Amino acid sequence: MTRLDDIRALEAQHIVPTYARQPVMFVRGDGVYLYDSEGRAYLDMLSGIGVAARGHADPDLTRAIAEQAATLMHVSNLYFHPLQAEAASRLAALSGLPRVFFCNSGAEAVEACLKFARRYWHTTGERERTGFVALEGGFSGRTMGALSVTHNEHYREPFEPLVPGVTFVNPRDPAAIAAAITDRTAAIIAEPIQGEGGVRPLPQASADAIRDACRSTGTLYIADEVQSGLGRTGYPFYFQALGLEPDLVSVGKALGGGVPIGATLVSERVAQAIAPGDHGTTYGGNLLACRAAIVVLEQLASGRLLEHIRAAGVHLERRLRTLALAHPAIVEIRGAGLMRGIELTIDAGPVVDLARERGLLVNRTDRTVVRMLPPLTVTEADLDRAVDILDEVLAAVAVEVTR
Hints:
By secondary structure, the chain is an alpha/beta fold. The protein has helices at 4-14, 47-50, 59-69, 84-95, 106-124, 144-148, 153-156, 174-180, 204-217, 238-242, 268-271, 287-301, 304-326, 349-357, 380-402, and strands at 26-30, 33-36, 41-44, 99-103, 131-135, 166-169, 185-190, 193-194, 200-201, 220-224, 248-251, 262-266, 330-336, 339-344, 360-361, 363-365, 369-372.
């Protein structure tokens, strides 16, 4: 069996050092568990940053992928194939937006949103409407366009100059949001729940300000649902919970259950402004990716999964709030459904590390936040076990802090 030390040495020679990997190598998964190269089991409350929505080695998804791989995986977008339209129709039914552009990731979906917004105003003759409004704390990806509407200077500064014309506003200031959206704004992009920014739901008053300003100025709204979408919160998309009316929605992560696929959902008025050749992709929407997406979307459309997520989310929130009562280091519990953030008074890094050592996978975001994104099929017993481990970890960290 390949050893972790061997892989680390080989990566040190050949992999571009963009990741600070944790000292563990996973070789197998089963449901909510991952197994490392030493055979140790880990309760996975991160699911590949929200990707493994059906858990690991899901039998239905595995079977569908194997069948499709043995039949036909890719023909390019020069030709029709039978699966893209089916996946698109399922996304349309869940979101209410009738058109879909398939790509390979959430960042690519955001890029398409930005391009389609600019194209819309170019087509309608208002070519001065090129600006974007984005939110402080927002994260939309690392490609140049997506990075331009990502707020954190740590991500942005080494790659500037980025796409010009982006204004950042406080997501908790409805008046500032309303003032920033003008008749020169092409679109405002906002995550209904900020993921990398610390699992921070958009306040209802701010959502109302976005909706009203877009109605009064005609500005397009881009809902970045890469992390919060596809059932993660107990809603198909969290913009629905806030009463928002997006013209464009970016989707990724969970859509393929682990097979790379992203999608941009598009309103009819925006779709009518787009012409052949305006955008494209080699791999996006190929048969393998669409077959995986259909499996994920079928389960989501049944309704039973959403009911399970809501119930599991209530249970997790209750357990986390009880946990907060026992640990003064916990400042706040945030999120919805199975997208939860635990804000601490201390750096969350040691909590994440000690949790991993005890067989629990969570991660740190926004420095002081422990993020939980378990598989959507997680049971209450799994969640109880996760919170019990966090209880032990927080107690241990508190002892270290007081020494």
